[in-house]
Amino acid sequence: xxxxxxxxxxxxxxxxxxxxxxxxxxxxxxxxxxxxxxxxxxxxxxxxxxxxxxxxxxxxxxxxxxxxxxxxxxxxxxxxxxxxxxxxxxxxxxxxxxxxxxxxxxxxxxxxxxxxxxxxxxxxxxxxxxxxxxxxxxxxxxxxxxxxxxxxxxxxxxxxxxxxxxxxxxxxxxxxxxxxxxxxxxxxxxxxxxxxxxxxxxxxxxxxxxxxxxxxxxxxxxxxxxxxxxxxxxxxxxxxxxxxxxxxxxxxxxxxxxxxxxxxxxxxxxxxxxxxxxxxxxxxxxxxxxxxxxxxxxxxxxxxxxxxxxxxxxxxxxxxxxxxxxxxxxxxxxxxxxxxxxxxxxxxxxxxxxxxxxxxxxxxxxxxxxxxxxxxxxxxxxxxxxxxxxxxxxxxxxxxxxxxxxxxxxxxxxxxxxxxxxxxxxxxxxxxxxxxxxxxxxxxxxxxxxxxxxxxxxxxxxxxxxxxxxxxxxxxxxxxxxxxxxxxxxxxxxxxxxxxxxxxxxxxxxxxxxxxxxxxxxxxxxxxxxxxxxxxxxxxxxxxxxxxxxxxxx
Amino acid sequence: xxxxxxxxxxxxxxxxxxxxxxxxxxxxxxxxxxxxxxxxxxxxxxxxxxxxxxxxxxxxxxxxxxxxxxxxxxxxxxxxxxxxxxxxxxxxxxxxxxxxxxxxxxxxxxxxxxxxxxxxxxxxxxxxxxxxxxxxxxxxxxxxxxxxxxxxxxxxxxxxxxxxxxxxxxxxxxxxxxxxxxxxxxxxxxxxxxxxxxxxxxxxxxxxxxxxxxxxxxxxxxxxxxxxxxxxxxxxxxxxxxxxxxxxxxxxxxxxxxxxxxxxxxxxxxxxxxxxxxxxxxxxxxxxxxxxxxxxxxxxxxxxxxxxxxxxxxxxxxxxxxxxxxxxxxxxxxxxxxxxxxxxxxxxxxxxxxxxxx
Lengths: 554, 358
Hints:
The complex is a heterodimer of chains A (554) and B (358). Chain A has 24 helices and four strands. Chain A is an all-alpha fold and 554 residues long. In chain A, helix 11 runs antiparallel to helix 12 (251-274). Chain A is globular. With 358 residues, chain B is α+β, with helices and mostly antiparallel strands. Chain B has two domains: 4-226, 3-Layer(aba) Sandwich (Rossmann fold); 236-357, CATH 2.40.50.140. Chain B has helices spanning 42-50, 92-102, 107-120, 136-148, 166-183, 194-200, 218-223, 228-233, and strands at residues 4-13, 16-26, 31-35, 57-62, 65-66, 77-80, 154-158, 186-191, 203-208, 211-216, 237-243, 249-252, 255-258, 268-273, 279-281, 290-300, 304-311, 316-322, 335-339, 346-349, 356-357. Chain B has a six-stranded mixed β-sheet, with helices on both faces. In chain B, strands 15-19-16-17-18 form a five-stranded antiparallel β-sheet, with no helix packed on it. In chain B, 40% of the residues are buried.
């Protein structure tokens, strides 16, 4: 029996909100993606339907190579993230690891830090002229540099393991102690117990986070283009094809885009399908036991946990450190100074203003629309709201490059000619991060009993009044935490804005990326540090507001 | 104070029919209880009166006003929720004043009305507290105060006591009944607890599968259930389907009984008896119909003894014996005699409806 309050037929506040939501998704999401699909299937010269581009994509060595590379970095990043994240989660939840809170905070920081700084920090550390490379060289050791497939996988593993860690840790905290005690009682050794009881119970959380790592690794554009050298992945290929096909019809770029969407979707569906019968109703009676971590075993566990976190924090430390080095043009001098910051403020102050403005506006829209949409999905169950819920899954699997190509295809001519404007940047930030905003609000809304609002209506409040005076105040902490998350991801957005920016609408991540390619590491470091400061401030805000802390970042 | 008339109400969720042609007339000032198992449509009916969803067909009248599709916020019916639904971000006082602010009452009147209602529910001292600082019982009293303060025409209560512990439930239901009497407010109360329904109501409406089974006073419902469902819901047991012989002769519990004339054409009848109406003795009592049995389990609950017996002809039967009436301690394995009076037997037709036969 539905507990939702329904109003039949009559237009009211919520039918208006529904119409707005459907229109927004149709124009900003469906239309560009349909256009991407269409362009890839139509011969630009004859106008006939053709599968030629897809045939080429799946047979030509150049493209197949990129596809294989993408699969490798995706699977490698996923596996690496699991190998780091699962033990970290297990050790920190089941043993008294010193500085556990600091480990969580560091993991969150690594997670929300700008995705591309990892890549270029590793160049500083282990590039051709990196200090680690030089150090090892002086010791007579020949080690491979960071460039290449292994470097990409390393960066992805260290970038995305916090997803696995945070999701697995929260699942581990909810495994009933008695289950593990029962396994012991029935004769399992600790390792057998982990493999046969604990791990299967964690599978929904582990597989969901692993797939997330896969999809994000597949979609990531900055890392492979900075340290990939001759390793082409689908996302760098789509970008390069698009920029080189400028003027013509970007048929090849959109075919690659479609392939990326399909791979991501298949991955997500496989994960859902594999856990379809694995919904373990949690009736938590006994919290899991936490053991002391002493002796050699304890020392090894501490070494692992702190080692992983230190590696993950390394890029951040490197960025902050290099930003404080005195520079002369692109050359670093061996003393501290604020020259990089002075250059940023002198040369590109508008870039900082742009980023804050665009991300702020996008966040405002995400928050307002996200709250309305989550309300429609949770409280107004209908076919349309189920459709909303399903369509909101789409941005998760659409890489930023692809979304940007879609925008360029449809918003480049009247009636909606937005290419080169600030609006298009704000809109793409909005549509890419809207699902996260909706999910943040939805999570809070599900905690609020529907009867609370019915009580307000029963006492004489109109639907709009009941929503604003009762539901919104109760949702507020969650909404604000969600807004900060949207802001963090929006100021760090690169893969989509890189195709859409023009000189006056450059954002900080774009500027960092361009600076890195130009070898201007000082400017890149200073800008990245500023980004990190904004991000850190928001993280602090979320941690202060959120009741469930780290889970707010997932 | 208003009379509530419900005419031909129907409501479906997809293929599931939650309400099937429900018609009721609730006199002004009555404490009217909707009683039935979960899924019987009682909450659906209550929420239709509140306006939280609309019926597919039929009409609800408050006095002479047809509610139609009037919005829930304009119906002037107070509602008390099963899960309290106290606004957690507002103090007790602000919760109580919520509906008054909505009605833009003058400050002075608002204060007087809120104080009066808080006195009624004995929460004057707690008025500055936040809901999280209150016990479940206190929260539900806030819920009651908040619904009463707007002076609704009808008070609706959706299993308001089901989340409270047993003793508090008894106390609070008496408070609710007393307040309702004093204000004389028409109240529609939903519960699945027969004891609660019998103890507070002026009228009880027993519902099953979306239909009204019987409307009557608690006494009528208990003494004259109209069909098998109502009887089973207010405590009858041992529904045995039996063959009817010549002249209505029926054999049950080792004795001969005479079925009502109405049972004779179909040759089948269903017979039931309440466990507390059985008399259990050490030896056969002269002049009372009965048979021998063995005690299979005996459970002493303090107030009574619950016995499970097997009669000599193999029938399992439950009995409840007052703990001090015969002052006998029953143990499993004991021999006993089961007696029943003819007037305590209830006869029902042996068909799907199971109408009461007399």
